[in-house]
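Format notes (please read before filing issues)

Several people have asked whether sequences and structure tokens are stored in separate files. They are not. Every record keeps both together, in the order shown below: the sequence lines, then the token lines. Line labels are part of the format and must not be stripped during preprocessing.
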Amino acid sequence: MVRGARVSSTRSQGVDAVLDVRVDKGTIAALGEGLDANGHRVVDGAGLVLAPAFVDPHVHLRVPGGEDEETIASGTEAAAAGGYCAILRDAEHRPGRRLGCGARVAGSRTRRRRR
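Then the structure lines:
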């Protein structure tokens, strides 16, 4: 049970309040103020935000070719530690690097607009 955390969920559910949350067998069983702990261990949620897991839709895992910066294992572990339940991997777009399909990323030039 988490007591006194700021609970935030999707707008359709309309929850954004300081509440207690009781979980039974991995499922949220009750939301409210002053809930009975019902024998559960109580975690002080004061000053914390309790939200559903997040999805990061744009992740660079630096693979292939950038494993010195990050690997798939280190990147996904970091995402999980940050509360993300899923990530959507974007390809590395560095000129001259080969993508997983064997294609090579071409260099690109950009021009700054004069004001």
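For reference, the curators noted about this record: The two ends are 57 Å apart (CA to CA). The chain has one helix and seven strands.
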